């Protein structure tokens, strides 16, 4: 694997490493918060003869730089298996019971975090990952911070256009998943991640959220982001149903060609906007 020449692992403390764990793959990025010319993103392929965990272990060992003492090492868990718990009901010693009440997972480590910079919302995100993989990454990465991808998105959505009185719905398309997060000003109304492996799955879930809250298709906003090209028919239909539909664009604080950033997932891209 060839990394850009301007990444110098003689000084790993300058860089932030972000690793994305998705249901059927693995990707990572490296960037320097103080040098906007430094950014690298890579999706890796798996060996079908190895198990999921064996593939990740092999990647970590084959490319030794993963174990370097970076400024920060983030492990982003991408999945629709999470639950939001109000702070009033949150007890750290009971996270397993709370999580398993909604989602049953065997041989999984349950993790929790409180998303930062989400005003008017006192809640925790509970999520899980494979026990063996969690233990392996803790042993081999430098002080890894485990986070869920929804925790990366909510602070940005909360801040965006939050002065308007109308409700706002944000839809992020990625992999075979779709995040739907709704706000009134800075208050989170709902957040869910849905599978979108069927032709009209996305439309069904979005319309369902709008009806449940409810949201007004003539007044409230719908913002679309991520891989919207993969959902062209859905997007075209939504524009017919909802008056205020916008494609949300991002301007990362890096000076690299647009083609290098276009395919980068939103939970990584948002870090570059900070």
The residue ranges in which pLDDT falls below 50 over 5 or more consecutive positions are none
What's the CATH architecture name of the largest domain? 2-Layer Sandwich
Placed side by side, the strands forming the largest sheet appear as: 3-2-1-4-8
Biggest sheet layout: 5 strands, mixed
Class from helix and strand fractions? alpha/beta
How many domains, as an integer?
2
Name the average pLDDT.
93
Q: Give me the number of helical elements.
A: 8
> Which H/E pattern describes the elements?
EEEHEEHEEHEHEEEHEHEHH
By DSSP, the count of extended strands is 13
| Beta-strand proportion | 25-35%
Shape label: globular
What separation lies between the terminal Cα atoms?
A: 28 Å
CATH superfamily label of the largest domain? Protein of unknown function DUF3822, N-terminal domain
In helices, the fraction of residues equals 25-40%
* Alpha carbon gyration radius: 19 Å
Name of the CATH first level of the largest domain? Alpha Beta
What is the CATH third-level topology name of the largest domain?
A: Nucleotidyltransferase, domain 5
How is this fold's topology laid out?
Elements lengths: L15 E7 L2 E8 L2 E10 L7 H11 L9 E6 L4 E5 L8 H8 L5 E6 L9 E8 H10 L4 E4 H11 L7 E8 L2 E8 L2 E9 L5 H12 L8 E6 L5 H10 L2 E4 L10 H4 L4 H4 L5
Parallel strand pairs: 1-4, 4-8, 9-12, 12-13
Antiparallel strand pairs: 1-2, 2-3, 5-7, 6-7, 9-10, 10-11
